[in-house]
Amino acid sequence: MPYVDRQNRICGFLDIEENESSGRFLRRYFILDTQQGNLLWYMDNPQNLPKGTEKVGSLKLTYISKVSDATKLRPKAEFCFVINAGMRKFYLQANDQQDLVEWISVLNNATKITVPKPGEGHAAHAETPQEALGAMKQVSYKTEIIGGVPIITATQEQGEGQNGADRGGLKRGQNQLPYFLSRGAQDQTVIKAGYCVKQGAVMKNWKRRYFMLDENAVSYYKSDLEREALKVIPLKEIHKVQECKQSELMMRDNLFEMVTSSRTFYVQADSPEDMHSWIKAISGAIVAQRGPGRSANTIRQARRLSSPCIQRE
């Protein structure tokens, strides 16, 4: 979902049909920079790419004449909208209907040319990125059929980068179970799952990993296709989970920390909503585990806390 980063730019993941009329959409990280007058897109959040990595594409805002809903033009492309730029049309897919409306709104606002009326000493107030986004709740869902099992999940997805997969193929939702669990009997204790970026313990580098929270632990994997976890952090060892107080020092958006006796794990989510969702889910699971009874109701409560709104199942 779009959010305003620390440089006052509107950012978020979208799928784009980079080759017009190809029908093949690729996952990209978009940055709407109204100060520089550009819409840029990268393989992943530039914070997670090697320093100096070039953008995949860009478009000057002055070239954009109109941004509109294109779901009727592309009925097979869910939540599709189109950017008209001269002789070229850029088709993009949002994560859900709200995401679609927000992106169309902020792009149209960014490309608006305000002409002051005669007698006015200055131009009208320019809308800030925060004002453009407003206070709308940012939650997205996507339905996928995997191994014959329909799964409806929130869709903050993995971008492409050092550890990213080709987003032109099957897309995996932010809260979707790993592939090996979705093919058979699913582990009913899985509360939340999805991609985040974490800091390494030794090299202090940042890598995208697949995280999974169950009633006993937080685990992370190299990808959602892996069976063996790279690390398992028992909930009983987590003393605190909270928004990171050093996010400014680390220059990372959407950063939270899990504090244990031996180490503090720094984890970056893809949006503010996803960050708060993880904090609530992990905190809820810890309460459920340490409370007087670990009933099914407490686990369901932790699941509800993992999403900003009730999921459709």
Description:
By secondary structure, the protein is of the alpha+beta class. Among the domains are: 3-111, PH-domain like; 190-290, Pleckstrin-homology domain (PH domain)/Phosphotyrosine-binding domain (PTB) (PH-domain like), CATH 2.30.29.30. The protein is 18% helix and 31% strand. The protein is built from 6 helices and 17 strands. It has helices spanning 97-110, 129-133, 179-182, 247-250, 272-290, 296-305, and strands at residues 3-4, 10-16, 26-33, 38-42, 57-60, 64-69, 80-85, 88-93, 141-146, 149-154, 192-199, 206-213, 217-221, 231-234, 238-243, 255-260, 264-268. Strands 1, 2, 3, 4, 5, 6, 7 and 8 form an 8-stranded antiparallel β-sheet that branches. Helix 5 (272-290) packs antiparallel against helix 6.
Gist?
InterPro entries: PH-like_dom_sf, PH_domain, PI-Interact_SigTrans_Reg. By secondary structure, the chain is an alpha+beta fold. 18% of the residues lie in helices and 31% in strands.
| Amino- and carboxy-terminal Cα gap | 21 Å
* Pattern of helices and strands: EEEEEEEEHHEEHEEEEEHEEHH
Q: How large is the share of residues in beta strands?
A: 25-35%
Q: Which superfamily, in CATH terms, is the homologous superfamily of the domain at 3-111?
A: Pleckstrin-homology domain (PH domain)/Phosphotyrosine-binding domain (PTB)
Q: What's the total helix number?
A: 6
- The CATH architecture of the domain at 3-111 is Roll
Q: Identify low-pLDDT runs.
A: 120-126, 135-143, 145-174
Radius of gyration: 20 Å
Mean pLDDT figure: 77
Top CATH class of the domain at 3-111: Mainly Beta
Structural class: alpha+beta
* Major sheet: 8 strands, antiparallel
Helix residue percentage:
10-25%
> The CATH topology of the domain at 3-111, please?
PH-domain like
Strand count: 17
Q: Which outline best applies?
A: elongated
Function: Binds specifically to phosphatidylinositol 3,4-diphosphate (PtdIns3,4P2), but not to other phosphoinositides. May recruit other proteins to the plasma membrane.
Keywords: Cell membrane, Cytoplasm, Lipid-binding, Membrane, Nucleus, Phosphoprotein, Repeat
Membrane topology: Peripheral membrane protein
Subcellular location: Cell membrane; Cytoplasm; Nucleus
